[in-house]
Design goal:
Pfam families: Hexapep, LpxD. The protein has two helices and 24 strands. The protein is mainly beta.
């Protein structure tokens, strides 16, 4: 989402040196940035690229301001300011809440209305899903799982029984949480599996 330097200054808390109405549409490296893009300098290894940058603006510290050929956002923590600005420019599209027709839900589940259950999700019994949760396609949620506010399961995630996922946690595609360990006991020529009765909590 394009933004002016004035907006990005407010978002990041950095001091603006330059035109507040300058439009920024994306981020890039100091060496590759061009007009309409913003870059940052937080690692001294790249300080030599600063005087040559074509970026419309650079996020940097006070000590590097004199070498900057463009507008600047001055911060004591340039990398943190960059993180805030990048998140603002690349905001996630607002999710649509609800439960897909192809999702399968178990018994005694508590699912907040402000959550998203995508296609082909399978949810077991006694599962609690709080507000703002996003569960992507093909995820499996086993019995007695709790998922905290604004957590995201991107796709193909499996949460085994009794798992607790805290607020704002992001689980990327293919993650499996709470699967069996390798507990086995030998009896002569055979192995007896030891039940995995614990749980996993992610905060």
């Amino acid at each position: 989402m394009p933004a002016t330097l004035g907006e990005l200054s407010q978002v990041s808390g950095a001091r603006l040196e330059g035109a507040s109405e300058c439009n920024i549409v994306s981020v890039n490296t100091l060496r590759q940035a061009k007009k309409g893009e913003i870059s940052f300098l937080s690692n001294r290894h790249y300080a030599g690229d600063l005087p040559l940058t074509k970026a419309s603006a650079v996020i940097l510290s006070e000590e590097d301001l004199e070498q900057c050929p463009s507008y600047a956002l001055v911060s004591e923590t340039p990398y943190l300011a960059y993180a805030k600005i990048a998140n603002h420019l690349y905001q996630t599209v607002n999710q649509s809440f609800g439960i897909a027709d192809s999702a399968v839900l178990g018994n005694d589940c508590v699912i907040n209305d402000l959550s998203t259950i995508s296609a082909n999700v399978v949810i077991g019994n006694n599962v609690t899903i709080n507000s703002g949760v996003y569960i992507g396609p093909n995820c499996t949620i086993e019995d007695n799982v709790e998922i905290g506010k604004n957590a995201s399961l991107i796709a193909n995630v499996t949460l085994c029984h009794n798992v607790v996922v805290g607020n704002d946690v992001i689980l990327h595609p293919g993650v499996v949480v709470g699967s069996d360990g390798f507990g086995m006991a030998q009896e002569k020529d055979k192995w007896i599996k030891i039940p995995q009765i614990g749980s996993v909590k992610i905060h």
